[in-house]
């Protein structure tokens, strides 16, 4: 997936002097439906870096929503700033007003730096904010089903590699135990895996170990990569898989919750050359968007979890296609997503505001 030639439909720059809001909303595609994607609140080094991230993330959302079988296109928003010091009601409401001006072409939700309570505030200004708190009829924490979907993708990878959909007796290295990584670690422990973790936040590691005392922790990602393991699960920020890291990985499988794990598209082929099965991130971490999408229909956790269980079969289909076509799973997943966009996409790919 070449982001620079991905043909984004619309990029909106948002600025509100009163609240200090500076944001970018990128709509990649509305071929399958309104563009759904979270809002990332992050202290980008420059506006250019923020735009690049919005373009990359929104394109990935088109592919993620397509593979998940949803009638949704792909979009993403980024708010430039430090959420710990700059997030205010005024800023979130100003952002909500910008979302509302798009008339439903873009549906927003949570991402890094934003939470259900933030979307409750955004929703005071727009009809198109989802991933709200349960108190307001929303789906609650979408990291729950994000982690569940990653676990289903990992089970499928285990089935493809070892002939059994279980991680029992396998060592799984989880890099990042925040919202998604901590839930994933819990699933792995329950499945009988030996789990070793790291995180830049020692408190996150301690919280996990309180719940699961058998989990081992190491100092940093470099040490985690050197630790013998069967499965590597990147669950922090993107770009975790670069040529240097991949050259050192002892894993047989890479499957994690982070978005945009490949530093460059060529890394997918490097993984394949080393005999490491890569589960494309936008395939396996779609549980969260499935959870958020279900909110639009009157949220049912059981229904959303049932949909997220389908990630297992889609992942197996991608792995088989990659073998048959002699390409990386990243290429196979792209082809499957693009085929659905072509065959199912609306005749009028540009969706007008409601």
TrEMBL record:
GO terms for biological process: amino acid metabolic process. Keywords: NAD, Nucleotide-binding, Oxidoreductase. GO terms for molecular function: nucleotide binding; oxidoreductase activity, acting on the CH-NH2 group of donors, NAD or NADP as acceptor. Residues 140-349 form the Glutamate/phenylalanine/leucine/valine/L-tryptophan dehydrogenase C-terminal domain. Gene3D superfamilies: Leucine Dehydrogenase, chain A, domain 1 (3.40.50.10860), NAD(P)-binding Rossmann-like Domain (3.40.50.720). The keyword Nucleotide-binding applies. The keyword NAD applies. The active site is at residue 76. InterPro entries: Aminoacid_DH-like_N_sf (IPR046346), Glu/Leu/Phe/Val/Trp_DH (IPR006095), Glu/Leu/Phe/Val/Trp_DH_C (IPR006096), Glu/Leu/Phe/Val/Trp_DH_dimer (IPR006097), Glu/Leu/Phe/Val_DH_AS (IPR033524), Glu/Phe/Leu/Val/Trp_DH_bac/arc (IPR016211), NAD(P)-bd_dom_sf (IPR036291). It holds the Pfam family ELFV_dehydrog_N. NAD(+) binds at residues 176-181. Belongs to the Glu/Leu/Phe/Val dehydrogenases family. This is Valine dehydrogenase (NAD+).
């Amino acid at each position: 997936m070449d982001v620079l030639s991905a043909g984004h439909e619309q990029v909106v720059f948002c600025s509100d002097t009163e609240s200090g809001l500076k944001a970018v909303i990128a709509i990649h595609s509305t071929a399958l439906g309104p563009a759904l994607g979270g809002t990332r609140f992050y202290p980008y080094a420059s506006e250019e870096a923020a735009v690049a991230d919005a373009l990359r993330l929104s394109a990935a959302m088109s592919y993620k929503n397509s593979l998940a079988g949803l009638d949704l296109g792909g979009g993403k928003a980024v708010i430039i700033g430090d959420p710990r010091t700059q997030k205010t009601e005024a800023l979130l409401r100003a952002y909500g007003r910008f979302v509302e001006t798009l008339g439903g072409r873009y549906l927003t939700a949570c991402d890094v730096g934003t939470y259900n309570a933030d979307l409750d505030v955004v929703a005071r200004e727009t009809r198109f904010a989802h991933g709200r708190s349960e108190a307001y009829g929303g789906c609650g924490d979408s990291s729950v089903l994000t982690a569940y979907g990653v676990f289903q993708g990992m089970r499928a990878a285990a089935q493809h590699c070892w002939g059994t959909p279980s991680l029992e007796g396998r060592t799984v290295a989880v890099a990042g135990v925040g919202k998604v990584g901590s839930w994933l670690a819990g699933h792995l422990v329950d499945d009988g895996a030996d789990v070793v973790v790291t995180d830049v936040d020692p408190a996150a590691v301690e919280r996990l170990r309180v719940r699961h005392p058998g989990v081992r922790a190491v100092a940093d990602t470099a040490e985690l990569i050197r630790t013998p393991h069967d499965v590597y699960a990147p669950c922090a920020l993107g770009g975790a898989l670069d040529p240097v890291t991949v050259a050192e990985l002892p894993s047989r499988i890479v499957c994690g919750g982070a978005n945009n794990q490949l530093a460059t598209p060529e890394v997918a082929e490097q993984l394949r050359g080393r005999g490491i099965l890569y589960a494309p991130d936008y395939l396996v971490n779609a549980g969260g968007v499935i959870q958020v999408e279900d909110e639009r229909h009157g949220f049912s956790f059981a229904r959303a979890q049932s949909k997220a269980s389908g990630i297992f079969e889609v992942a197996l289909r991608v792995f088989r296609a990659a073998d048959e076509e002699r390409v990386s799973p990243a290429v196979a997943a792209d082809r499957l997503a693009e085929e659905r966009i072509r065959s199912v996409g609306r005749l009028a790919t540009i969706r007008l505001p409601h």
